[in-house]
Amino acid sequence: MKIHKTIGILMLSLIFSLGHAQKRGKLRQADKEYDNLAYLKTSEILLEVAESGFTSVDLLQKLANSFYFNNDMENAAKWYGELMKKKVDGIDPEYYFRYAQALKSVENYEESDKWMQKFAQEDRSDLRGQAFKTRVDYLAKIDEASREIDVYSLEINSEVSDFGSTQYKDQLVFASSRGGGKKYKWNEQPFLDLFTADKTSEGKYTNVTKMDTDINSKYHESTVAFTPDDQVMYFTRNNYFKGKYKKDEDGTNRLKIFKATLDDDGKWGNIESVPFNGDAHSVAHPTINVKGTKMYFASDMNGTLGASDIFEVDINSDGSLGEPVNLGQAVNTEGHETFPFINSEGDLYIASNGFTGLGGLDVFVIRDFENKRALNQPMALENVGRPINSPMDDFGYYENLGTKEGFFTSNRDGGKGDDDIYGFKIPDPKQDIEGKVLDQETGEPIPDAVVILYDSDGNEIQRVTTGPDGSYTLKDLDIETEYLIRAEKDSFLSDEKRFTTPKKKQQLEIELSLEKDEKEIGEGTDLAETLGIPIIYFDFDKSNIRPDAEVELQKVIAVLKKYPNMTIDVRSHTDSRAPADYNQALSDRRNKSTIDYIIKTGGIDASRLTGQGYGESQLVNHCSDGVDCSEAEHQLNRRSEFIIVKM
Predict the structure, then answer these.
(1) Do 16 and 111 share a structural domain?
(2) Structural domain of 78
(3) 3 state DSSP class of 410
(4) pLDDT of residue 148
(5) C-alpha distance from residue 87 to each of 92, 226, 230 (Å)
């Protein structure tokens, strides 16, 4: 019961224009089967007509759609291709999208991208086309998101459809067509029922048992969600309640979410229809957050952007439900968004064919969704990558972060039935770090810088090189772990930062800035600015050189020794907070002490040094006598300058 089997199918125009009398009977039969959504029979009839050499635009549309909606993507791609060869003016752009999707499912991504580009051009407002245009490198992004985890088909899978797994205590609850009984015309399989499988001590699932008859009916039941206290269950069922089977005005039986409560005997009963169900729309596939305050579900109710959207609704303290709210364009497109799942960390997983993926339905995630939504922060939707996703339909994602178990459903090649449930062990979460290395002075990116990651003991773990835009990425860091990151490049001083990764994976950016190691100097250059020398401090009313000032003056001595022809002028300044005569005399004494230190301690010839004190005569701001200024403003005037006079 994939999304196009559950959320509702748009009924297409079924007018044939062939003039061949010998085929009309079969075409009329095909129309009837198509109207009844029995696509297996439709495809057989239309295929016979087409392979006899009789085709039209209308026939090719129906034939391709029959294969597309039955997930025979190889044949869908073939017949959509024949349709495109007719170069029909005014064709619905949706056919370009379906052709692109079918091509993805047979892994012809290059050709698929061409038709997605055409789709995006034909309907510039469609969110699916916009998503494609913003992610033309989507395959590379999916490869980056892919993880090396083993997925395995559960032993409880059958030869029919099994999907939509959820854990309840030590059981796995899922939907399956194995129950027998009334058959569903769509795929000629029995209607779906809900089953449980017990978890063994080895972590396997066995002993498949059909749930209570109060829950299972003669029509479809699927996709279950439980409240945190395990006392309330929400599940999906056809619009069939208290013996009444209802259809919309087009004759389609829709889906509804029902609520059941656990009685004292451990049985599910007291079944109720949730208040936002309706005969004219479907609601399905509930999931409940860890606090039990929100339900998320899929629907095509009023306000839906596409074929089906993800909605949220408040669960009030008394168990009643609020008004549904569409999650908007951050989550939904004109395509199918369905099978939501919210994990215990507030990450929202969905299945979608509207966002760029590997083909069919892909699983996507918005990490930290609930927190970001509450704070109205930007959200980033990510494709979870392989091996969860494949060229076929992948949906029904579920994970238990406590037991490290994960499940999803797929109709990929190699399965046992139409849809199979796959399991995997959730690896320990890893954190990626992104950032840029910038020039400290100009703010420009530095390409080809080396970024090195060390553990807390100083052992090198990773080494990468920045790209043309100065960007870098470090992958698969452990969470809640201390690291040191360092950036290096020739002609620059290195920069490093120590950090601890957060408890849960999130977007983490670290910017590093490099100071040029070689700075251009010449006549007029102030060595104090070039070497980062602060004011040469003296003790109050003293002129002798302090130990901390010696460190700074040694920098000047080193430069003078490196450039033996250089001469400098030493200039000492004060602020205005004393009589001018006093400040002048004090600066003269301090200037003399500075020069004497360079000559005597540094061994520099006296002829290479000139200088004098300027007192408060060369203030760099407005802080003259009588002006009220802060300490920081006065500090700017107390400075030492070492001006290059000659090189």
Answers:
(1) yes
(2) 3-124
(3) strand
(4) 82
(5) 12, 51, 56
